[in-house]
Amino acid sequence: MDDRKKMPKTLYGMKPNEILGALGLEKTFQGKQVYKWLVRGVSNFEEMTDLPKPLRFRLGEAMPRLASSEVVDEQTDSSGATKLAIQLIDGAVVECVLLTDREDRKTACLSSQVGCAMGCTFCRTGTMGLVRNLQAFEIIEQFVHLRRIAPDTTHIVFMGMGEPMANFAEVIQALNYLH
Q1: Distance CA 17, CA 35 (A)
Q2: Are both 57 and 77 inside the same structural domain?
Q3: Which of 11, 64, 112, 159 could make a disulfide contact with 164, Cβ separation 3.0–4.6 Å?
Q4: What is the pLDDT of residue 139?
Q5: pLDDT tens sequence across 75-87
Q6: Do residue 58 and residue 95 come from a single domain?
Q7: Domains in the chain: how many in total?
Q8: How large is the average pLDDT for residues 139-161?
Q9: 1-55 confidence digits (pLDDT tens)
């Protein structure tokens, strides 16, 4: 039987007990270990060095990618800001940006929606209309993708695509996970 069919599309956003069940782990502490690594932003099970090697191998075979989304474009401008285009599991694309200030503090600028219903004339996203709200795990995965570029990212703002207050519950859930 193929273990991949049983695996979730992503583990980001899950609590330790949910991870335990989703991965079929037998020991409660292993759900906590995986959770700890996910919050740190690892991209595969092999990086989870406190899990037994045979378990890492089995999980990695069944779920080669931990994120459901992938970076499809990366651009860095003259100011040093790096913009990522992230393709979501349904094919929609959102943007997130890594900003660095004069003190070298890294800030993740995240999207909360695909498109936006606000219609602000100064914003290109406002002309797209609202396609849908992002789920918490899709917001979390943006941060994870940015942390691969800059592991020392310490701040988050929601100035990407969408109006965060129009997707309040998912934004708060993502922030609680990342906190």
Answers
A1: 9
A2: no
A3: 112
A4: 97
A5: 999 999 999 999 9
A6: no
A7: 2
A8: 93
A9: 345 456 788 999 999 999 999 999 989 999 999 999 998 888 899 999 999 999 9
CATH of the domain at 58: 1.10.150
Among all chains, which residue has been given the structure tokens 């069940």? 21
How far is it, in rounded angstroms, from Cα 74 to Cα 87?
A: 12
Angle at CA of residue 132, ends 98 and 91, nearest 5°:
70
Give the pLDDT band of residue 123 (cuts 50, 70, 90).
Answer: confident
pTM for this entry? 0.90
Take residue 72 and report the two structure tokens written for it. Answer: 């499809």
CA torsion 126-144-80-157 (nearest 10°) is: 50
Domain that holds residue 114: 70-178
pLDDT at 5: 54
Considering only residues 104 and 126, tell me which one the structure prediction assigns the higher pLDDT.
104
DSSP-derived secondary structure for 14-73: --HHHHHHHHT-SSHHHHHHHHHHHHHT-SSGGG-TTS-HHHHHHHHHH-S-S-S-EEEE
Residues 6+ apart with CB under 8 A from 96: 83, 84, 86, 108, 109, 110, 111, 142, 143, 145, 146, 160
* CATH number of the CATH domain containing 129: 3.20.20.70
Does one domain contain both 74 and 57?
Answer: no
Residue with tokens 């100064």: 122
